[in-house]
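U., I forgot to send this yesterday:
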Amino acid sequence: MKNTGNIPALRFPEFKEEWIQKKHGDIFSFRTTNSYSRDDLNYDDGKVKNIHYGDIHTKFNTLFDITKEAVPFINSGITLKNIAEDNYCKEGDLLIADASEDYANVGKCVEIVNLNGEKVLSGLHTILARPDLYKMAHGFNGYLMKSENIRLQIKTIAQGSKVLSISSKRLAGISICIPQIPEQQKIATFLTAIDDKLTQLKKKKSLIEQYKKGVMQKIFTQELRFKDDDDKEFPKWEMKRLGAIGETYNGLTGKTKENFGKGKPYIQYKQIFDDSKIDISRFELVEIGAKEHQNRVLFGDVFFTVSSETPNEIGTASVLIDKVEELYLNSFCFGYRANSLEILSPYFSQYLFRSELFRNDIMKLAQGSTRYNMSKVQLMKLEIFVPCLKEQINIANFLSAIDEKISHTIKQIEKTEQWKKGLLQKMFV
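Result:
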């Protein structure tokens, strides 16, 4: 069914009436918000909580339930006696972020569905819209504001170059189509069920990741050991200096902007930072002359980032566990190649070099103030405990099985989010 007039392309079969067209300002009136910065807020103590626009962008669910969200308090030293009672948030209010650096987040909003009796204010760079001019169903407006038509209108009214912003006056003028209350309620209930499913999946992903982190800690401190096929103990782990069992090599040298975009594949800095193993679908290209002596990377090589804005990101490692015919490495990184893959299996090293134990050692090598760097010479002096090859493989297989569960859950989340996105396009006018 095509979308004709004020009828959505997809709707529940029991509803036939056309939707009613109104202006945003026919439904919502606006209240005064505050401009308290992050420095004026804390998560420990206070009487009034404050919703910051940054949290609307990054943290809060579409339907805001204060019992399920971490919301900061306004510092107790700040007086709130001049704030009118009518400017405190109420259930049913929309809190809209009025500023963003990109179109994707400008006008992003949440609908308050449960305040649990707490006092809450709408904070910096927010618009507080209250649906007190026209009766609306609880939980519907949050999804309505995410519909394709309204998102497009919000992007149209956004102003600015470096920072985009919207005003309540401009917002009041956008066009909105709404169904009768029973249809609003059914849409809200249906989409809430999808969001609940997403919440469950994200919680599942988080729990598996926490489990993986905990078990990796036990494995690499040798609190947890594996046994061979005959249920016998593997040999003790041996301490080895990185420089004694392998060597480093540099990434690309002598390249300018004109050399990139065509030619041979190379590993990017971000590929290393994003995952413990290199994603071979994300290679970029660089021109390599026939007589150039650039270092090629090989299966099993480990790659380290050498520079970062924070010390806890320095020396992030990723491993090439796929065989690629000809491949190079970005100049902002360096490679490490073990003398033998029977000493250090790549399937094992992808976990070893991301373990908390190794990360704690490598962060101590960070040098700098505004930008942190790491010395290859110092890295090669680090010592690691290495199990025998068979135990390495057992460890890698065990952790890979956990990774597969995480990957499967991520795919479920992505599939559900895409489904929800399609519904938001079709279920609203």
